[in-house]
Amino acid sequence: MNLQFFMPTRIIMGEDCILKNADALYKLGKKALIVTGSKSAKINGSFSDVTNTLDVNGQEYAVFDKVMANPTIDCVYEGAAYAKKENADFIIAIGGGSPMDAAKAIALLACQDIPRENLFSGEYEAKVLPMAFIPTTAGTGSEVTQYSILTNDAARTKTTLAAPFLFPDVSFLDSKYMEALSKVTTINTAIDALSHSVESFLSVRSNTLTEVLALESIGIIVKQLENLKNFTLTREDRSQLLYASTLGGMVIAHTGTTAVHSMGYSLTYFKAIDHGRANGLLLTEFMKLVEKLRPDKIKTLLVKMGYTSLLELESIIFELLGDTESITVEELESYSDIAIKAKNIPNGIVAPTREELLNIYRAVFKV
Amino acid sequence: MNLQFFMPTRIIMGEDCILKNADALYKLGKKALIVTGSKSAKINGSFSDVTNTLDVNGQEYAVFDKVMANPTIDCVYEGAAYAKKENADFIIAIGGGSPMDAAKAIALLACQDIPRENLFSGEYEAKVLPMAFIPTTAGTGSEVTQYSILTNDAARTKTTLAAPFLFPDVSFLDSKYMEALSKVTTINTAIDALSHSVESFLSVRSNTLTEVLALESIGIIVKQLENLKNFTLTREDRSQLLYASTLGGMVIAHTGTTAVHSMGYSLTYFKAIDHGRANGLLLTEFMKLVEKLRPDKIKTLLVKMGYTSLLELESIIFELLGDTESITVEELESYSDIAIKAKNIPNGIVAPTREELLNIYRAVFKV
């Protein structure tokens, strides 16, 4: 048996967990830079929970609330410059995947000067500001990964910055922050989490332990699909989805993702299709391809889901996601050319060819 | 849902994993103190794998091979003095629970002066030498916990030193080191691991995530009980047991143990009964007590084990452990007086009274 496991982030989950665990923030530093988006953290209560806790602790803070969806390289350099200007000695990220991913790069760039051309090289010191993360969506899993995924205009896709010291020190999981989410965002993020756990399970790097966690995550999310459809989610349902998405993060931290993510990045980059939705659109077609060569793995997933065939999963996912976008074959050809170069492709137990990628795209978008 | 999870130790499992991951030792320091027992590490190949790797890395080392079974406070102070004398800047523990538990205290005491009377107080700085652990039995789980359990003559029992910075930095799991173990040691350590996972599951601090891992561990160990009986263990079987015991460590790192451990410590302290065997002797009687108040939890365990009643588990455990020792009622009375004071008692979802502890002891030893 071969296995590696490393997940150094302290996870604290529960209602009002930030306020109840103020010491976990206290020990991180004297002045925080709060990295977030422009609005949602202030609406859902997470921002005030953080600032109230910092006030109680007597810790100062500055706010960088300029993180957009699919954050850019400019954005993280701007955030890092602001962290230095404000003498912040730790980072608090609040938000969905975008603020959390940006915050990791900011925590890194605030500590050392890395030229833009080296940002994705991994060639830098193991020096980073301490980080506390507060997810306000249940999808990305970024609160427990070493990945910072940034929009890379040079490569016309999203590129991953990864280093073992980019794991947050602590993550606070409180599902009350998700109650303000719209139905569409709730669905897209849940499907993103499902995709993480399924892709991890179908990765060449999956191991006994990540498979246990991935299957647990998958079982929980599939149980919530009907609630998602009806949008009748109790706080406990929201907690279940948050827990499952964090498990999804834990497993992709070990295994990475697969062709689904590689292909999805183009849909997001060129068509502004939400990241979770993009994964959801592509997921079952990729699973059908895997099923041809590794029916055993797909069978295990279906048993855990309580389905007898992939068509059942496909049916409920597309019911949740609604009509697909209009994309031309020429566009899909060019996306396939980009996706085939991604590292995630050979990371799947089945590594699609460029033609197979195109076929998946065409099947999804019916062209 | 409330949940906390923190397991910062990097786990590297696989054949020859030390040699293949020499960099994971390299980054820990310049000179190691190897903490081990007098013999087994040299016989089972782990000692030479470590020293060969250090040689390749150009790292120096000194050896402290005086750790006895159930290590004493004297032993860890002596080890720490030796670490200082040798200017060791990191610790490598090789062995079963005793060297690993001693190594954590040595790593702590080598960094700061702690008077003996404060050793179990927790009142010290978060300063400790980096640690790499190599278990050579599959039972204790110490390679992934923050616990150092020492023989405490003042309290006439074993006492736990615990701190979040006592997690090893890295643990190497290679089941080839277990092939030299006798049948008795293999059984006792496997039953110790089973007890950890069962006790964690029956702890007030268990949570959704620790329960998933505990059940996984339990399922694996129970599948190996027949192989243990016949002592027909392949290397893969040994790997399964090692993996399961590490999972057991991961879960007790979060939940602690229960009355089983409190009671077992007296059997070890006064009667020199092996730690794992002591837990095994007591485990099913404790589970019977829990079953009266929380049949749901025992049912979940039995389903995972594939048994219909606790008697089936009891039967195979006692078949493995053989005849029980002779202990008088008076002795058991005094053990009950000691055990009832332990912190582990109220840590179970059922906290036995002093009389119930005595009844468990009496049922086990048939007096």
From TrEMBL, chains A, B:
Residues 8-174 form the Alcohol dehydrogenase iron-type/glycerol dehydrogenase GldA domain. InterPro entries: ADH_Fe/GldA, ADH_Fe_C, Alcohol_dehydrogenase_Fe. Pfam families: ADH_Fe_C (PF25137), Fe-ADH (PF00465). It comes from the Bacteria. Residues 186-364 form the Fe-containing alcohol dehydrogenase-like C-terminal domain. Gene3D superfamilies: 3.40.50.1970, Dehydroquinate synthase-like - alpha domain. GO terms for molecular function: alcohol dehydrogenase (NAD+) activity; metal ion binding. This is Alcohol dehydrogenase.
